[in-house]
Amino acid sequence: MDVEVLAGDDWKILQDVRLRALRDSPDAFLSKAETSWGEAEWRAFAVEDAWIVARSGDQVIGVLRSVRVDDRPAEERHLESVWVDPLHRKKGVLRAILRYLAELEPEVRTWMAWVLDGNDEARAAYERLGFETTGMRQLLAGTPRREERLRLDRKAAISDSIDP
Ligand SMILES: CC(C)(COP(=O)(O)OP(=O)(O)OC[C@H]1O[C@@H](n2cnc3c(N)ncnc32)[C@H](O)[C@@H]1OP(=O)(O)O)[C@@H](O)C(=O)NCCC(=O)NCCS
Q1: pLDDT per residue over 67-116, tens digit each?
Q2: Domain count for the chain
Q3: Which of ligand 1's atoms lies nearest the C-alpha of 93?
Q4: Which domain holds residue 57?
Q5: CA-to-CA distance for 53 and 2, rounded, in angstroms?
Q6: Span 44-70, pLDDT tens digits
Q7: Which residues line ligand 1 (CB under 6 A)?
Q8: Which of 5, 28, 105, 164 has the fewest CB neighbours in a 10 Å radius?
Q9: The domain spanning residue 25 has which CATH number?
Q10: Which numbered atom of ligand 1 lies nearest the CA of 83?
């Protein structure tokens, strides 16, 4: 498996993997706007944040984006659009992506992730990787669904989890 950060002009790779993720796991993601996007929107999306992909041969088998949120501390990132191809789950793909990210973003101390209630698989994987709850929960506007914010501290990650 290879892990790499996408370049800005890799928008077609991003489009393909993100649409696969939305088709495969619609309940895991809030935004579905991408399904109607054209090239301009995909190009803009590709350069907005750092997109990390894992590949097996020519196929992209995992993805996430690391987002710097303006009103949050500079040493914090939010992980979004986290997805691994079902045929490759529980084989360490997300762990490998996080390990790569930890090297790519040495200034980052904490990674955050929101998990929707009921997404027990993602929660189990995150906890196994060292994420802990922040205790912060929120109701999603216009729905009865809630989500919870988890955090992974670099120290915990390096000692127990994503460090080789
Ligand atoms: C969540 C997700 C990205 C995990 O990816 P993954 O590549 O399977 O995760 P990893 O293999 O790196 O797993 C890390 C650890 O969690 C464990 N784990 C993974 N999925 C698990 C599950 N469903 N139940 C229990 N443990 C699980 C793994 O066994 C591993 O632990 P180990 O190294 O001690 O064996 C994947 O299940 C997925 O894409 N789900 C659908 C989309 C989604 O829900 N995204 C998250 C939105 S918040």
Answers
A1: 999 999 999 999 999 999 999 999 999 999 999 999 999 999 999 999 99
A2: 1
A3: 7
A4: 2-161
A5: 8
A6: 999 999 999 999 999 999 999 999 999
A7: 25, 28, 82-84, 89-95, 113, 115, 119, 121-122, 124-125, 128-129
A8: 164
A9: 3.40.630.30
A10: 39
pLDDT at 30: 82
Q: Which two tokens stand for residue 100?
A: 């790569």
The one-character DSSP state at 37 is -
What is the C-alpha to C-alpha distance for residues 103 and 23, in angstroms, rounded to an integer? Answer: 30
pLDDT score of 164 more than 60: no
Q: To the nearest 10°, report the CA torsion of 49, 110, 71, 21.
A: 40
Pocket of ligand 1, candidates 3, 60, 89: which has the most ligand atoms within 8 Å of its Cβ, to mutate? 89
Whole-number pLDDT of residue 160: 55
What is the CA(150)–ligand 1 centre distance, in A? 15
Strand partners, 151: 112, 132
